[in-house]
Each structure stands twice: as C-alpha cells, then as structure tokens.
Design brief:
Low-confidence stretches: 251-257
Distance between the termini: 78 Å
Number of strands: 15
Number of helices: 16
Mean pLDDT: 79
Largest sheet: 9 strands, mixed
Radius of gyration: 30 Å
C-alpha cells in the first residue's frame, strides 16, 4: 500500500514540476523569497521561519487571553466555576502532594535549578545555552511582574494559602515552561537516541502540566492565569531556542574549561544535579505556607422579603454549566435556620444526602450503573449558580431502585438571610431518567413535575411555616449541560421551614 502511495506521489510531482518551473520563472521574487524562507542550510531559512511563526502565534494567543480577562465576563465566570469545581475534590493528601509539585515553580527553586544548569553548561562548553537560559528566566520573571502590575487581578477566594501578589499571569506556569522546556530542548539537542528524546520531552511536558494543575488545585490561580503563564513562558522559550539555533550557525569561541574540571565533568555534573534535587527536597519538605481563611457566607446580606430574591434583577435566576451557558432556572428557595435544619428536614422527607465527588464515589457509581444497582447516596454532576457549585445534593430512588433513575435536587447557600437571621437557600429539581454516553444521566424534560414532587414530600414530613408560588422567569424550553431538553412554566416555590 505504501509503495502505491509513493508511486502516486512521484507521478503527481513529475506532472507539477513543469508548471512550478513556469511559475518560478514568471514570479522570481516570490519564489526566491520562499526558497530562502524554507532553506535548511542557513538560520534565516526554515529554522527562523518556524520559530518566527511560533512566536507570533503564541504572542497573539497571549494578547487574546489578556483581552478576554479584562473584558470578557464569560471567561471570568468560567474561571470561578472551575475553581469551585476543583474545590469539591480537595483533600488533605492531595493538597500535600500538589504542594510538593508546586514548589518546582517557586522562584527560589527555579533559580537553583537554573544555576545548576549554568554550571553544567559551562563544564561542557555550552556558552550559548548559558546566555539563552539567563535571558529566558530573567525575561519571563520580568514580564510576569509587569503583567501582574498592569492587570491587578485578585487571587481566588478559596485558595489553600495566601499569595502576596496579584494573580494574572501565573509566574509558576511561566517559569516552568521556560526553564524545564529549555532543559528538554538542550538535552534533546545533545542526545542522539530518539527514544531518549521522547522520554525527556514527555517528562518535561508532564512536569510542566502538573505544576500548572497544582496552581489550580491549590486554588491560588484561575485557569486563565495558568494558561497565560504558559503562553508567556512559551514566548520566552521560543526566544531562547531562536538564540541557540542562530548561534549554531556561527563559529563559536568558547573559553576553555580548567583541566581540573575537564577531567571530572560527569562527577561535577552529577554533584550539581544532586545538590539541586537536595535543595528542592529540603525546600519542599519545609514549605508549609499559612492556611488561607476559606471564603464563606457568614457575612450575609439581609432580604426584607424572600420574594425579593426573584424580583431583584441583580440575583441570577438561572443555573449555569461549567462553560457559563444558561440552563435550568431556580425552582424554589427554602428559608431555614442553618445547614443542619435544612439537611435534617430533607432527610426526614425520605431523601438521601449525596456523597461528595471523589475517586471512590465515582468508581462506586460507575459500578452501580453498569450492574443496574441502587446507590441511594450516589454523587451527582455539579451545577453552578452565582459562579458557585451546589453546596448540597439530595436524591431519592424511584420504584426501579437503580442508580440509573433517581429524583434529585441541588441546593446553594445564598449570600442572603431574612430579617430574623435565617439562611436562604436556592434549589433546582429534576429526574434522572437514564444513563447518557455511559458517564452522565439524561433528565426528564418535565422539571416542574419534580419541583412539585419535592414540595409534596417535604410538606408531608416536616412542619412548613409557609409556602407559596411566585413567577420567577418566563415560561420557556431549554437544555441542560449535556443537551437534554427541559420545559418549565417559570414559577418557583418559596418554602419557609417551621
């Protein structure tokens, strides 16, 4: 098959050669320019062309991110929602792990790695690498500082620990791709084996990705901060590679290495790597920043009347997907003393509090769905209201007693209380009617039926001081995050517990 394709390619090339020669004769300037840009024998040819195109492309991406952060409410909302989503998966062991990972991007550690690399490059006479590394590390740090000083973006509210400066762009992401990306480039140039090259490149990409994700998991940066940091570091990485490639076409005059060092290059190189790793290990072991006070809703605003929740245009009436697209409207609010009263009342109505989303619960619900078994406290897909993921989820099995079909409701703790100091919670209801794509549920479109079903359950089990229906949004049809249709009359219940 490959032989046939090769023959076809040769024949096509032969047929095009006369036409290409004629075009070259008619447009000598254009074809001369292209020949120079694509030549492999000089730096200003293909090498510079690829590097220049890469630099311009990454530069425009970076400018686009800055513009989006400054002007796009959609990007800001998506950043906040991703931050809240990752907060669901936070646990002590994972925080400890990612603290070790994030230290790779700390300036002190990065500089120590850079100094060790400079020493090794000097041992092996790689003057160009030294100059490029110093240029890239210094340039990325300066530009990160300038970006933070101009944009003035605050850190996420739920950060594991406090950082002392602005959030945009991520300095950890920028220095990681500039530093470890250049290490991979330099090693790849010196190593001939493609297997080793691929191993080195894969390790560098994995480390850079982990450092960026650690900033998201620890919630000290938003996603757009990390992405912009990658782009900024990428700009300097391209600049460093450009300098090295340009230098490779010039005659180098490298100062000699002293004989005492020259005879023991590997020993001194190994020692410098060992010292860098030891410095990282000690730094990471003792790096335990003071915990940040997690954002809560204790300083709530008062609403003179729960109905004003729906009449206030500044309060979101709809939930949203992770990407910020509008989905189901809020279908009821409940007034309760606190979380404990709300949870106790709903449990008394025969509903189960959903498990938190973690790897164990995901594995358990996957098994239950596969075997068509019941899992009354199964985790549910997060939904977002006011850029926050739902605080509580409750579910109730149907007569089928299967995780594939269940009633479920989600609640958000709103930033409002009544004049008496009672907390106001917002909620939605829907019926999981089956499994979709093997990973999520499909909902029954009649979400108002589930709204009424929940109210009946609650009213038959606990004392309700008052409940009444109000017009929240216009009657409409819509779709949820997975494209399932729903329809609603736009009304919502106000429920005040006894």
């Amino acid at each position: 098959m490959s032989g046939i394709i090769k023959k076809i390619f040769i024949e096509v090339r032969k047929s095009l050669e006369p036409e290409m020669e004629r075009l070259a004769e008619n447009y000598p300037v254009v074809f001369g320019f292209l020949k120079k840009r694509l030549g492999r024998n000089h730096f200003s040819g293909l090498t510079l062309t690829v590097l220049l195109v890469s630099f311009v492309y990454v530069l425009f991406l970076f400018i686009g991110v800055i513009d989006a952060v400054l002007d796009s409410g959609l990007i800001i909302a998506a950043d906040a929602q991703i931050s809240n989503l990752l907060y669901l998966f936070r646990n002590e062991k994972a925080v400890d792990f990612f603290l070790w990972v994030t230290v790779f991007g700390k300036l002190e550690v990065a500089l120590f790695f850079a100094l060790a690399a400079v020493f090794i490059f000097w041992l092996y006479g790689k003057k160009d690498y030294i100059l490029a590394l110093v240029l890239g590390v210094a340039g990325s740090e300066v530009f990160v500082f300038l970006g933070k000083s101009v944009v003035h973006r605050p850190r996420p509210l739920n950060a594991v620990y406090s950082e002392n400066y602005y959030s945009f762009p991520s300095g950890h992401a920028a220095i990681s791709i500039a530093l470890f990306g250049f290490f991979a480039y330099a090693a790849g140039r010196e190593i001939k084996s493609w297997k080793k090259k691929i191993l080195i490149y894969s390790a560098a990409v994995s480390l850079v990705a982990l450092i960026g994700f650690s900033r998201l998991y620890l919630d000290v940066h938003f996603l757009s901060d990390v992405w912009s940091g990658y782009l900024l570091g990428g700009l300097w990485l391209v600049s460093m590679i450009t300098f090295c490639e340009w230098s490779s076409f010039r005659e180098k005059i490298i100062p000699p290495v002293p004989k005492s060092f020259s005879a023991n290059k590997k020993t001194f190189a190994f020692a410098s790597v060992f010292l860098a790793v030891a410095f990282y290990s000690v730094f990471a072991f003792y790096y335990r920043p003071a915990p940040n006070k997690i954002f809560d809703l204790t300083e709530a605003k008062k609403l003179d009347n729960p109905v004003s929740f729906f009449s206030n245009d500044l309060i979101p009436k709809y939930t949203k997907t992770l990407g910020g697209r509008r989905q189901e409207p809020i279908s009821f609010i409940i007034v309760a003393d606190d979380d404990n009263e709300l949870i106790a009342a709903i449990k008394k109505s025969g509903w189960f509090l959903a498990d938190s989303i973690n790897f164990a619960s995901i594995k358990k619900i996957a098994g239950a769905a596969l075997l068509n078994e019941n899992y009354p406290t199964a985790p549910m897909t997060p939904s977002f209201w006011n850029s926050r993921v739902n605080d509580f989820g409750f579910e109730k099995p149907t007569d089928k007693a299967s995780v594939r079909e269940r009633h479920h409701i989600r609640f958000w703790k709103t930033p409002f209380v009544t004049d008496e100091g009672r907390r106001i919670y917002a909620g939605t209801a829907s019926l999981d009617a089956g499994i979709k794509w093997g990973i999520t549920h499909t909902i029954d479109p009649a979400i108002d039926v589930e709204r009424d079903y929940f109210l009946d359950d609650l009213g038959s089990a606990v004392e309700i001081s008052m409940s009444y229906q109000v017009a929240s949004v216009d009657p409409e049809m819509g779709v949820n995050f997975s494209g399932d249709p729903f329809f609603t009359d736009g009304k919502a219940y106000v429920i005040i517990l006894q």
